[in-house]
Amino acid sequence: MPARITMLPSGHTFEILAQETILEAGLRAGRAMNYGCSDGNCGGCKARVVSGDVIKTRHHDFALTAQEKSQNTILLCCHSGEGDVVIETPEAEGSHEIPHQKIIAKVRKITLPTPEDIRAVAMVHIKTPRTQRLRFLAGQHVRLDFGDDVAALCAVASCPCDDMNLHFHLPYRRDDAFSEFIFNTLKPTQTVTIEGPFGNFILDDDVKTPLIFVACGAGFAPVGSLIEQAMALDETTPIHLLRSPDPANLRAGPAPEFGFGNDSAPPYLDNLCRSWKDVWDGFEYDTLNDDTTAMIDAASRRARAFDQYRLYLSGPSTWLKTVRDGLVQANVRAEWIVGDDINGYREI
């Protein structure tokens, strides 16, 4: 049986696997733990062992004081648990407790859409230095700055548990300088400055409340990150995902390399969503066309199935307003709706 780590004062618990550090296990479990470099240099992940035994798994350059050592203080990034362990360490309670960061990173990989792909979403993988990883909450955005006034605010599509490998889903927008750069100029190994994180499109503390996610186009980027976190935090939370393509007026592909194909094609990363349905008993997934009326009806029907819920909307600003207003008119409680504007590329 895997050992279990209990965090004080929150009382949150998570399992730790063999060869994992306590920090790695906590991030994998979706916990917003305090840390900095993840490499034993900064001391940002200091915690006090209240009970249980830990083992040092790697050397760290950060020097603990004699008093800290006498109080059983350790670095979570350099220790694992031997059996069940109780530690005293704070957790971030919201986006305001995540520090603002500025990191010089490199583009690792770019995957452009095929000519048949009507979604025209570029997948960009950026890797940070090992000693300066990005601490963020699922659903947040960062500013990507490639220099020469090519910069924009973009949603992080990956899970905070892999803070060194950041993934972005970047839609094509004709006549947008940032979009044209991503699709026509960006190359692997290019340097990029990451600044942030920004935004409050994040999960509530109570992840046992049923979650309904509605994503339009590349609005799936932050939604996918939130779903992965919700799955890591709780094994029983009902999760419903509805996806639609961008509105027709935004689906103008970059010609001639990236034309648009069959409009009935599934959304990008459709197989990933279907795999979630296969492994998660409470997960439901449906795709719709770009008819906002149908989307409002589908989302409101799912909301009415629960006494309480949180409904997350992510998509272009015009779509977002239309769907939000329609849901409220359908008696979905406005205070339970959280929205995120993915309107192409937004500068700060």
From TrEMBL:
<protein>
    <submittedName>
        <fullName>NAD(P)H-flavin reductase</fullName>
    </submittedName>
</protein>
<feature type="domain" description="FAD-binding FR-type">
    <location>
        <begin position="97"/>
        <end position="204"/>
    </location>
</feature>
<dbReference type="InterPro" id="IPR017938">
    <property type="entry name" value="Riboflavin_synthase-like_b-brl"/>
</dbReference>
<feature type="domain" description="2Fe-2S ferredoxin-type">
    <location>
        <begin position="3"/>
        <end position="93"/>
    </location>
</feature>
<dbReference type="Pfam" id="PF00111">
    <property type="entry name" value="Fer2"/>
</dbReference>
<dbReference type="InterPro" id="IPR050415">
    <property type="entry name" value="MRET"/>
</dbReference>
<dbReference type="GO" id="GO:0051537">
    <property type="term" value="F:2 iron, 2 sulfur cluster binding"/>
</dbReference>
<dbReference type="GO" id="GO:0016491">
    <property type="term" value="F:oxidoreductase activity"/>
</dbReference>
<dbReference type="InterPro" id="IPR036010">
    <property type="entry name" value="2Fe-2S_ferredoxin-like_sf"/>
</dbReference>
<dbReference type="InterPro" id="IPR012675">
    <property type="entry name" value="Beta-grasp_dom_sf"/>
</dbReference>
<dbReference type="InterPro" id="IPR017927">
    <property type="entry name" value="FAD-bd_FR_type"/>
</dbReference>
<dbReference type="InterPro" id="IPR006058">
    <property type="entry name" value="2Fe2S_fd_BS"/>
</dbReference>
<dbReference type="InterPro" id="IPR039261">
    <property type="entry name" value="FNR_nucleotide-bd"/>
</dbReference>
<dbReference type="InterPro" id="IPR001041">
    <property type="entry name" value="2Fe-2S_ferredoxin-type"/>
</dbReference>
